[in-house]
Amino acid sequence: MRNYVVKEIPQNSFFSKNVYLDKQFILTAPEIPFTRNLSQLLDDWGFKVVYSEGEPRADYYSETSDEFGLAEFADMAVLSDSDKMKRAKEFYLSLYSYVNQLFETAVIKNELNYKDMVRHVKTACTIIKEDRRFLFRVQEDTDPGPETNFQVVHAVKTMIISIVIGSYFNLPTNRLIDLGIAAILHEIGMFKLPPQIYQSKRSLSPKERKAILTHPVLGYNLLKSFDFPLPVSLVSLEHHERENGTGYPQKLTSDKISYYAKIIAVACSYEALTASRPHKSAKDGYASMLDLLKNEGKQYDELVVRALVFSLSIYPIGLYVLLSDGRKGQVIDVNPENPRFPIVQIFGEHTPDGKNKVVETSPDGINIVRPLTKNETDSQGGDSTATQA
């Protein structure tokens, strides 16, 4: 990786590969220009040098179709599990960077470009479909940094879950792309509110809670002003509607809620359940799945909940679990015949050829007793499947 002196980087140039702040934190992705403001901020922060395996260019070239700088991982068929995990982590960080920049541009410059998003989300859909098993395994270990707005993290993870659900339904590529765009932007109306409301770490006043309830309408109007397709714009308006008519802002019932909004309502809710917020702790994936299943037919579309369960399993991919024989491991794939009995990779065990050992759980054999807490996985001394795969 080469060093670049910040003051010597041409203004508004595009690096051909990701630019790193400290050889780990991604500063810009290939589609993001290295602006004068960014250079000044780095100087103010005391950063004189940045790092990249690419080089600065006058223009951004999208012909490579490598929107997230992952060309080195192009052929999944020949990659080791370790490379696939690395690719998944780098994709996450690049996607965080892209969505963060997208939101900043929307807020500061009042700009959103549908065609530009199509190109990026098309690439993301391909990676998500190929890497689904690895993306969910690295989530807990992939931290975009404390400075990242939780709305960015929520948008990224909701998009990934939505694409997985859409793939289960065999949606064609053009519909998956619009579903992904809608998932990224479903909470865009929040940014039309004062940040002290939507970023608050305190309890909101009744007036502030009432303001929060306006964000679906604000988001819908914003996307329509930028000429986004109606199916994409409707998601911003309807993602808090519920099948039984208890949602908002219009209290729509099942037959009146748009298809993408039904999918994103489930994806958004699952992500929110599994995420930490200033006002609540995260639930594990198993408890979150049970919460959604309890609401099946009441708040959420039954077919969409089923698609999520069969795509991730009731013990979702990435969950650390205790097995009935006392061993510990991580769920790495689903059992397409029965989502209650997924495939688990065992901590610290390998096959004779050196590969990580896996077991297929079953009702009559080894099965999952319960999820593991973070303290229990930390007690493995760092020997987790997410790092040794």
Description:
With 389 residues, the chain is an alpha+beta fold. It has 3 domains: 1-61, no CATH class; 80-312, Hypothetical protein af1432; 320-388, no CATH class. The chain is 44% helix and 11% strand. The protein is built from 14 helices and 11 strands. It has helices spanning 36-45, 81-108, 114-138, 150-168, 173-185, 195-198, 206-212, 215-225, 230-238, 259-274, 285-294, 302-312, 374-378, 385-388, and strands at residues 2-5, 14-15, 19-20, 26-28, 49-52, 56-57, 320-323, 328-333, 343-350, 356-360, 368-371. The strands form 3 sheets. A 5-stranded antiparallel beta sheet has the order 10-9-8-7-11. The chain has a 4-stranded antiparallel beta sheet with strand order 1-5-3-4. Helix 3 packs across helix 4. It is globular and about 65 Å long. The protein starts with a strand and ends with a helix.
Q: Which structural traits does this protein have?
A:
single chain; 389 residues; alpha+beta; Hypothetical protein af1432; 3 domains; five-stranded antiparallel beta sheet; four-stranded antiparallel beta sheet; 14 helices; globular
Order of helices and strands: EEEEHEEHHHHHHHHHHHEEEEEHH
Biggest sheet strand line-up: 10-9-8-7-11
Structural class: alpha+beta
State the helical fraction: 40-55%
- Under CATH, the topology of the largest domain can be stated as Hypothetical protein af1432
Distance between the termini: 24 Å
Tell me, what is the CATH class of the largest domain?
Answer: Mainly Alpha
Number of helices: 14
* CATH homologous superfamily title of the largest domain: Hypothetical protein af1432
Largest sheet geometry:
5 strands, antiparallel
